[in-house]
């Protein structure tokens, strides 16, 4: 349905690939002046990639952009900004040690110069800053340092910065991820003022209730494809979940699950940075999946269980013994290991070869007199795990960077298996690897639980979490929304739980 307002921007047939993986495939988007257009979808749907293309951060491979009936191509955010398109990122770009007025006009300070030596006319700068703040009636002292402002106030300054640059389109990427309820309401009031001035807002979020409250139109992305755009009066919540989730699922292979009679890990009402009041049991021979959207607290939870972050409240039992890891080495010595989310920065020692990357957590068992590495022992155990995990390499001394992503991941898993753990935490174990390598990782995971290991699996991919897990725990804004058995889990149900709409399936 067309709006009674001007079509200000159009993206047609936008496609973008990274290393052979399609992030966007023939996606279209229309923006109207004075309207809020929400873009939603699960993790990895392509939302941020699309925003980065519209905002000039990256170029599309195919497709076209039209702004005010003129074909445009942006090679940088500055080019997009000069046309009137501004992006407010989830991670704010304020410079904390500059004051408000300097942050508003940064990059445009030359118009306040009073000499060729770059001296700034402070009175004129302050007057312009106050005029900009008055655009949406903000009462913030322009002399305040940004580091002393709240996240909500910093976000307001980002908006003022965009408006002072005469932005006619403002992209807000997860703008309320760090805001309280009252701050979010204040943000919505500002958005209402912006649209009243004719500004078009692109609102990227995973919070369905807020999207339904604020959006005039909603575009849904799934696996890089646009599954549809709905006007406000067409939206039905169950239809929305179906459009977000509704890919065809392969039949899940039945897997024999061991009797749940031995608890490896019991977690009771624990809380920490980014999560609170979490309780669950992990059984011997079980794969317990954790699903949630960005900011749900999944990675923070497992980092705390692994001792990388602290647990502030609650109890943890390893078997029947109370145990809270004070450090990763503490967790490892008690049989808990972790394959981290960021393979490159958190998992690999890029200046070391394959064999050293594999054995670095088990050096004590390979050392002679705790003085030097017994190379024959290291070669033997490295060869065993290369064979066991079918790691494709030419020789163990090969540089780790020369391996494919899937084989690098297997090296990290081998490193953790060498200490004979009881529990392994896998945080996004197949991110950035191809389909064939994923299948090999899945087979490896199944083999581990057959031997009695307990696995905590975090994944943002719904087909993966549903096909691999025995049970699925869903987090929403740092809390446990529920734990579903494999047989009762559907994509729509998981998304409903993850977005705070659990009641759609429980009432």
Polypeptide structure, described:
With 507 residues, the protein is of the alpha/beta class. It folds into three domains: 157 residues, 3-Layer(aba) Sandwich (Rossmann fold), CATH 3.40.50.300; 73 residues, no CATH class; 244 residues, Rossmann fold, CATH 3.40.50. 34% of the residues lie in helices and 26% in strands. The strands form five sheets. It has a six-stranded mixed beta sheet with strand order 6-7-8-3-9-10, sandwiched between helices. The chain has a six-stranded mixed beta sheet with strand order 16-19-20-13-21-22, with helices on both faces. A four-stranded antiparallel beta sheet has the order 2-1-4-5, with helices on one face. 43% of the residues are buried. About 1% of the residues have low confidence.
Across the major sheet, the strand order is 6-7-8-3-9-10
User: What profile does the largest beta sheet have?
Assistant: 6 strands, mixed
Structural class: alpha/beta
Give the count of helical stretches: 19
**CATH superfamily membership of the largest domain:** P-loop containing nucleotide triphosphate hydrolases
Low-confidence stretches: 248-252
Helical content (DSSP H or I, runs of 4+): 25-40%
Share in β-strands: 25-35%
Average pLDDT rating: 84
Mass-distribution shape: globular
CATH class descriptor name of the largest domain? Alpha Beta
**How many separate domains make up the residues?**
3
